[in-house]
Amino acid sequence: MRRFSGRFRSSLIIGLQGIRARKLRTLLSMISLFLGVLAVVVVQAGASIAERALLADLELTAGYDGTRIMEMAPQQAAADTVTTTVRGRTDAVAMLAVSGIIGEPGVTPVNPGGSPIDEDWGPPMNCDENGCVPIGGPKGEAVEVRLTALTGDVRQFRPFRQVSGQWLNFTTVPAMAPKLVLNREAAKAFDRHRVPAEMRVGGAANNVTPQFTGVVDDGDGQPRAYVRLDELTTWLPTSRLADPNTNSELRLMMAAGSPVEQVVVSKLKGQGNEPYVYTVETRKEQQKTLTLMQLVFFAMAGLVLLIGVAGILNVGLATVGERVEEFALRRAVGTPRFLLAGIVLVETLLTGLLTAAAAIGVSVAGLRVVSMLVGNSQPILQDVQFPWEAGVAGIIAGLVAGILGGFIPALRAARIPIATVMRA
Amino acid sequence: MSTLIELAGITKVLKGQEQPRTILDGVHLTVEAGQSVAIVGRSGSGKSTLLSVIGLFDRADSGSYRLEGQEIGRVPERRAARLRSSHFGFVFQRFFLLKHLTAAQNVAMALVNGQGWLPRRQRRTRVMEALEEVGIAHLAKNRPTKMSGGEQQRVAIARALVRDPKILLADEPTGALDTETGALVIDALLAATRRGCGLILVTHDRDHAARMGRTHDLVDGVLNERVAVR
After folding, report:
1. Does B51 touch chain A if contact means CB atoms closer than 8 Å?
2. pLDDT higher than 80, residue A153
3. DSSP for A289-351?
């Protein structure tokens, strides 16, 4: 071990001396390798950033990896079962969604059917055997939203991004005027249309005056508002939130391993309601999409790296050719053959590492500049951090290039006949 | 005195030509500790080949080579490298100093050779002692390009001495120097023999050869000891 350490230190010292003595050659090697390592770093950084952004978007809509989701037919009994089972629990949150119209009473909302605000899904229709006729009053200043009632803080399962204001507080006494948190699309609608603070939900005892407390990004393209279930049920019976005749939704989000799942499934089966339960696997799903793209880009980066390796190999061979006497002399003073090879490899490895450091530095700086310049128009690049995976990829690329580029010169150095010094 | 080197019947034939040529033909040579031996001969007589065989740069085709009583004529390269490091010091006609290193770093090169490890402080002490021994400690930080030929050769001698070799092999060490400087270099080499180091000097210069304890003539690969007539 000690001998190995001594040899390693020897090769490191001699290698560093060699680099210092041939700064221009080292620089030329670095330049030839730089683009290759930079390509690897950029591809890996791009892949990591894209993967994270894609994953974040998927998590926003589907939920964190590993979250268990139970979907079931929206029946009154099911809604009662689910809400009573999860009441007071933190490992499961029930979500009950219905349509709600906020604004002028007696009018058709600006987005009938809860369509995105820039899309027109057409007026609601009443259809029978004679055909379909539009229903509802004249269009007025009202916005239709999907009203999602929550039994607890769902952000542990879906990472909503707070845009402004406050998220719902589940620790306080329920407010009489339900507090609503809008998603971006709903906020856009209310930004464009000044509507009276009056909310109508089918089956509600009265029209309700909601309070908007914040805006979140939930990744949903439809206008949606989130509300505490207990605040909504002050005005609306739970049964109205799970009416199979309306387009209501009933969903349960649970932590993996939560006992709620087994209990609710048993109860629902007893009621003849067969729930559909699955686990969120966003990473696995997106991996398939990204892998092929990553492979193509890495193949391209590999080719550029190979050109860099050829450059370092060329410079390495020329350097060994110039140093024949030095290597022969080193052998004469007792340096073993493989240490001579080690010296050449250390030099090319250090060159590779220096190049990797330069490429990583340029990438970090470049990413900052790009983030500053186009961060506002491209959310994916806003406040983006340089991914550590790209740094590791750059270092590995530098080392691999150093080994590949230095291998043949190292072999040549080790084979220099010692008698060269005698014949000189 | 203990016997350092014993060559018996060493033969080396140069192959790869139309007619194989015998370079060394049954060479016998014994060198004791502290003894100095000059090998004199014309160009192409095999002096450097003999030194290559002794310094384990090359292998003899036949014959016996004993170093401190141990047969080493057929040792593998890895052991040969160890022996070169532990037993031999080499001085060449063309100094072979690395231009990008200082005198001290050139001397330290023999210590940083992967055969054991000396901490930096010990290394520096040994290097300075070696430079002191050849009288150029004050030039430790100078690069070879700033030194005269004699000074460069003394750096090369310090490099050969820094590992305390048991035998010094000098191949025409004064060939590139003027007479006066050459004499100083020979002085430095002979100084090493006074502390028990053996010396084999290959030279054309009869005056330098005459300063050695024994002189051998190498003629057509045959080594003959010259009888001193004083």
Report:
1. yes
2. yes
3. HHHHHHHHHHHHHHHHHHHHHHHHHHHHHHHHHHTHHHHHHHHHTT--HHHHHHHHHHHHHHH
Query: Residue B199: helix, strand or coil by DSSP?
Result: strand
Q: In sequence order, which residues have a C-beta less than 8 Å from that of residue A103 and are 6 or more positions away?
A: A109, A140, A141, A142, A143, A193, A195, A196, A198
First-to-final CA distance of chain B: 24
**Cβ–Cβ contact A179 with B under 8 A:** no
Q: What is the Cα–Cα distance from A229 to A87, expressed in whole angstroms?
A: 10
The contacts of residue A250 (CB under 8 Å, 6+ apart) are A71, A72, A73, A74, A75, A78, A79, A82, A94, A95, A96, A241, A242
Residue type, A110: V
Question: In chain A, what residues touch B24 (CB-CB under 8 Å)?
Answer: none
Q: Please tell me which residue of chain A has the smallest CA distance to B105.
A: A17
- CB within 8 Å: A422 and B110: no
Per CB-CB distance under 8 Å, the chain B contacts of A21 are 98, 100-101
Rounded to a whole number of angstroms, the distance from the CA of B32 to the nearest CA of chain A is: 22
Percent of chain A with pLDDT over 70: 95
Q: Which of the residues B115, B118, B143 would you substitute to probe the A interface, choosing the one with the greatest number of A C-beta atoms within 10 Å?
A: B115
- β-strand B214-219 against B36-40: which pairing, if any? parallel
CATH of domain B3-226: 3.40.50.300
DSSP string, A76-89: HHHHHHHHHHHTT-
As a whole number of angstroms, the longest Cα–Cα distance in chain B is 55
Angle between helices A282-322 and A337-374 (to 10 degrees): 130
Confidence band of B230 (pLDDT split at 50, 70, 90): very low
> Running DSSP on this structure, what letter comes out for residue A242?
T
Partners of A134 in beta bridges = A125
Looking at residue A7, its pLDDT comes to 76
**Separation of alpha carbons A178 and A173, rounded Å:** 11
Distance (Å, whole) CA A322 – CA A23: 15
Q: Contact at 8 Å (CB) between A97 and A154?
A: no
Length of chain A, in residues: 424
ipTM topping 0.90: no
Overall pTM > 0.80: no
Task: Give residue A4's pLDDT.
Answer: 60
C-beta of residue A161 within 8 angstroms of C-beta of residue A60: yes
Domain coordinates in residue numbering, chain A = 2-60+284-423, 68-279
Query: H/E/C letters for each residue in B94-143?
Result: CCCCCCCCCHHHHHHCCCCCCCCCCCHHHHHHHHHHHHHHCCCHHHCCCC
Helix axes B120-133, B179-193, angle to 10 degrees: 120
DSSP string, A127-153: EETTEEEE-S-SB-SEEEEEEEEESS-
Tell me which residue of B45, B87, B84, B54 sits closest to B224, measured CA to CA. Answer: B45
Q: Tell me the pLDDT of chain A averaged across its residues.
A: 85
Residue of higher predicted confidence among A376 and A321: A321
Closest to B210 (Cα-Cα) out of B223, B226, B198, B193: B226
Each residue's pLDDT tens digit, B145-172: 999 988 999 999 999 999 999 999 999 8
